[in-house]
């Protein structure tokens, strides 16, 4: 078993045991945020026919030579084409077709004039400017060519992807399956939020916060009722959860106290312990086991420590299982707006709020940094990565900030 390893090594080990859990076919309406499992090749072009970008008249450009406000040319209007129509016949010299935006252009035409540069006159139209072939003409396949690969496996489904899928007429879409992730919270002190909070007890917040993080990361959270600090029972539950789920996350009982049984319970459950302790603060005593290719990851019971190690180590593996290729959080250089007075003997992930001002990122520590202080996670949208052995941070100092959610920064 490895001990006190760097964060990056821990993540590499976890990713080695991480692979997608298959695919499912779902309705397009439910695909936003999922990851595409298939390549999509256009089996017809977009637009599927030559079309008009304007309300106006389809003409033959050569018929408009020298046309001007003073000397308009006059063409006979032989048909009206609305969006959704099929042109009744091709256009020949001397003719124009009244056409709506998005309507198919008749054969023979090579330009469109907007309605504002024309004037109807009985069954004819006066054209006030000269056109070149191709003016205001949208060719079939202008956007997407037939046979073109427009979407690739591994792409995150954004609203634009949804739009392209729909324009290809795809109702059912193959996406990577979400992993089932068990959340097993451990501690004699825990009571459920629907139970009386007796003296000495606390509500089990981790089961909810970690489940929410799993959902946010793209997994399917399976929360279990909390369990007491009893070794054999924990070992039994670990085996059970591992059979029922793709990944098991626990919180609590990973340190060195008499009732911290998770490390031993992982061994008793038949799993192989990959490492114990990662060299970051908070969340140091994280433990990880593997059985039959599935992982058990035991996080600190301290609520913020659990959330931070989740962001650094578990979110990437859930994202990888869901088919995402790029799972690293973005880093930016930020300038400290306030000082942080503590020394960091160990590498520290400082909860911070990072924002953009006058051309640079600024960082403010997000409040009490104790590993159990959950409120500090409210403002925390980034972690300042302080190397071990560094002294306090001063106002104006440049730091490396790991962004947890780019949504909250700008
Ligand atoms: N002698 C030492 N003591 C500790 C060390 C050490 O190296 N030597 N390490 C400390 C560090 S660092 C951490 S982190 C914690 C980790 O402790 P555990 O993972 O064993 O967690 P617990 O002791 O079970 O709980 C810690 C804390 O969190 C509260 N908690 C637990 N579960 C929940 C939950 N589901 N919801 C809300 N709050 C929860 C629990 O009541 C404790 O207050 O160990 C240090 N000790
Ligand atoms: O590693 Mo712990 O989360 O600092 O108390």
UniProtKB/TrEMBL annotation:
Catalytic activity reads: adenylyl-molybdopterin + molybdate = Mo-molybdopterin + AMP + H(+)
**This enzyme's EC code(s):** 2.10.1.1
Domain MoaB/Mog residue range list: 182-320
Molecular function via GO: metal ion binding; molybdopterin molybdotransferase activity
Write out the GO cellular component annotations.
cytosol
Pathway(s) of this molecule: Cofactor biosynthesis; molybdopterin biosynthesis
Q: Does Magnesium appear among the keywords?
A: yes
Q: Does the keyword Glycosyltransferase apply?
A: no
May I ask which residue range the UniProt record assigns to the signal sequence?
A: none
Lineage top rank: taxon: Bacteria
**Keyword vocabulary terms for this entry:** Magnesium, Metal-binding, Molybdenum, Molybdenum cofactor biosynthesis, Transferase
The record's section on InterPro entries has: MoaB/Mog-like_dom_sf, MoaB/Mog_dom, MoeA-like, MoeA_C_domain_IV, MoeA_C_domain_IV_sf, MoeA_linker/N, MoeA_linker/N_sf
Cofactor(s) annotated in UniProt: Mg(2+)
Q: Provide the GO biological process annotations.
A: Mo-molybdopterin cofactor biosynthetic process
Q: Name one Pfam family in it.
A: MoeA_N
Q: What family does this chain come from, according to its entry?
A: Belongs to the MoeA family.
The record describes the protein's role as:
Catalyzes the insertion of molybdate into adenylated molybdopterin with the concomitant release of AMP.
Protein name in UniProt:
Molybdopterin molybdenumtransferase
User: What's the source species for this entry?
Assistant: Desulforamulus aquiferis
The uppermost taxa in this organism's lineage are: Bacteria, Bacillati, Bacillota, Clostridia, Eubacteriales
């Amino acid at each position: 078993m490895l001990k006190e390893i760097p964060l990056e090594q821990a993540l590499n080990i976890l990713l080695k045991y991480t692979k997608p859990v298959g695919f499912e076919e779902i309705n397009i309406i439910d695909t936003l945020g999922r990851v595409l499992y298939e390549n999509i090749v256009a089996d017809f072009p977009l637009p599927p026919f030559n079309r008009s970008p304007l309300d106006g008249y389809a003409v033959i450009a050569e018929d408009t030579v020298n046309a001007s406000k003073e000397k308009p040319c006059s063409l006979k209007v032989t048909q009206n084409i609305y969006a959704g129509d099929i042109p009744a016949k091709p256009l020949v010299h001397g003719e124009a077709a009244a056409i709506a935006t998005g309507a198919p252009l008749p054969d023979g035409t090579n330009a469109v004039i907007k309605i504002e540069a024309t004037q109807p006159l009985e069954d004819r139209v006066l054209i006030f400017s000269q056109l070149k072939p191709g003016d205001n003409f949208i060719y079939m396949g202008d956007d997407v060519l037939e046979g073109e690969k427009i979407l690739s496996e591994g792409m995150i489904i954004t609203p634009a992807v949804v739009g392209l899928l729909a324009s290809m007429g795809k109702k059912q879409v193959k996406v990577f399956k979400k992993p089932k992730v068990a959340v097993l919270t451990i501690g004699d002190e825990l009571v459920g939020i629907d139970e009386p909070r007796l003296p000495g007890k606390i509500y089990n917040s981790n089961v909810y916060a970690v489940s929410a993080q799993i959902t946010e990361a793209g997994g399917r959270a399976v929360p279990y009722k909390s369990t007491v600090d009893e070794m054999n029972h924990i070992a039994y539950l670990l085996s059970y959860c591992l059979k029922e789920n793709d990944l098991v996350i626990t919180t609590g009982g990973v340190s060195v106290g008499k009732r911290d049984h998770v490390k031993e319970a992982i061994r008793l459950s038949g799993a192989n312990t990959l490492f114990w302790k990662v060299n970051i603060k908070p969340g140091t005593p994280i433990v990880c086991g593997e059985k039959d290719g599935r992982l058990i990851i035991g996080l600190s019971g301290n609520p913020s420590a659990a959330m931070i190690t989740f962001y650094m180590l578990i979110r990437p593996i859930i994202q990888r299982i869901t088919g995402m290729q790029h799972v690293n959080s973005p880093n930016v250089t930020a300038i400290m707006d306030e000082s942080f007075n503590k020394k960091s003997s160990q590498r520290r992930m400082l909860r911070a709020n990072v924002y953009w001002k006058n051309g640079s990122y600024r960082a403010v520590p997000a409040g009490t940094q104790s590993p159990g202080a959950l409120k500090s996670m409210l403002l925390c949208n980034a972690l300042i990565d302080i190397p071990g052995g560094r002294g306090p941070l001063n106002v104006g100092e440049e730091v490396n900030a790991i962004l947890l959610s780019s949504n909250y920064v700008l």
